């Protein structure tokens, strides 16, 4: 058996798919210290999901530290035995007010939220219709569920409509999509999805992990960005990205639905309760995301600076407006070379290639944070100005 893995590891290494973990000896922030070949280097960090810069924010740390003192380190219990503190209820209520929903249920992660959602709410009589580029946790969550599965081509509303037309025998149908697609920085076409959902009597499920705190008024996410809050039936999301970045996830929606998840959702029933300090830190992070206009404004300024700078340099850039800024290189080796040039110039950004993205669609994904300074963005642009590779074409 071990030999099998040795062979698999070698194959993946030879094909260039092996992933290496960079080791950081600093907190997550504007800069990170990365241990590299025996020494440590401090680099501008362009690859965290720390969009609002709250991962190391003094107010978030202060709130978490106080909760560590008042509520202890761990819960050592699932929620329904003795693992529910006032902090868990406060965070659930705060998320509901923030997102404009009836109620919210916490999970240890959004991955858990998505794996606990579908099998609990949908049965063999139902159908789930999912964007082909949806996050792995949605794919796995749907796999665990007995509902009929349909996949529509990424963002293809005609294909979605064709599936809606031919699946009308199902008891309940739900269209499932990421709010923001992580490899592209593109936003789902929620107005069109909600319109189709209304016409074909389907529910809409949005996983807003890369959007909550980041887009829309107050950072309420893609439903509020598009003004379709009242047409999105189920929202899932993470506390592990913009909202402090520690860990935790949630499902938010109508009361009876959340009540039923508390009774029957397996990752909620059979997995430990969220750390109290994370609840308190996340509460502080939501306050900052909702009320501190200058944080998101700063983030948006840096996004514009980076996107327009890259376009001026002739690079193909994916997505619109979002702090996920992928440079669409195409060739895997060229993307890797670009990532290495950035590293040498003091910028930390990772190249993605197959199987994370389709073959021939390799890219370097830059992620902007509100803690970046204008000169950091200039440093990134400066590093890329003279970048050339025979298989990276610039306009
Ligand atoms: C990051 C992400 C997740 C996983 O969130 P965790 O809380 O880290 O488990 C789920 N869905 C989407 C769309 C994501 O981007």
Describe the protein in words.
By secondary structure, this protein is α/β, with parallel strands linked by helices. It folds into two domains: 21-52 and 293-385, Alpha-Beta Complex (Aspartate Aminotransferase, domain 1); 58-291, Type I PLP-dependent aspartate aminotransferase-like (Major domain) (Aspartate Aminotransferase, domain 2, 3-Layer(aba) Sandwich). The chain is built from 15 helices and 16 strands. The strands form four sheets. A seven-stranded mixed beta sheet has the order 4-12-11-10-7-5-6, with helices on both faces. A four-stranded mixed beta sheet has the order 1-2-3-14. A three-stranded antiparallel beta sheet has the order 13-16-15, with helices on one face. Helix 9 (222-225) links the parallel strand 10 and strand 11. The structure holds pyridoxal-5'-phosphate. Pyridoxal-5'-phosphate is lined by residues 109-111, 135, 137, 178, 182, 207, 209-210, 238, 240, 249.
